[in-house]
Design goal:
This protein has 70 residues and is an alpha+beta fold. The chain has a single domain, classed as SH3 type barrels. Helices cover 21% and strands 46% of the residues. It contains one helix and five strands; from the N terminus they run E-E-E-E-E-H. It has a five-stranded antiparallel β-sheet with strand order 3-2-1-4-5, with helices on one face. A hairpin with a 2-residue loop joins strand 2 and strand 3. The protein is elongated, with a radius of gyration of 12 Å.
């Protein structure tokens, strides 16, 4: 099973974006989602699969944080 992790879109150039994952910046293909800088995206295997609000992204990150504490 794979888990998608949310990151914040910093900038977009064509179909690629720089996305911040807890201070780790990666290039992500955003060609299949409607997103803009400042949005959050769920990413799987280097591709954004969903764009979401900051509130939703923070909920997911909190769940990951809670799982780490187990």
């Amino acid at each position: 099973m794979c888990v998608a992790y949310p990151g914040k879109v910093l900038e977009i150039e064509g179909r690629m974006a720089r996305v911040d994952f807890a201070s780790n910046v990666a290039r992500v293909n955003v060609g299949v989602v409607d997103t803009r800088p400042g949005d959050y995206v769920l990413v799987h295997a280097g591709c954004a699969i969903e764009s979401m609000t900051e509130e939703k992204a923070m909920e997911i990150l909190e769940i990951f944080k809670d799982m780490e504490a187990l």
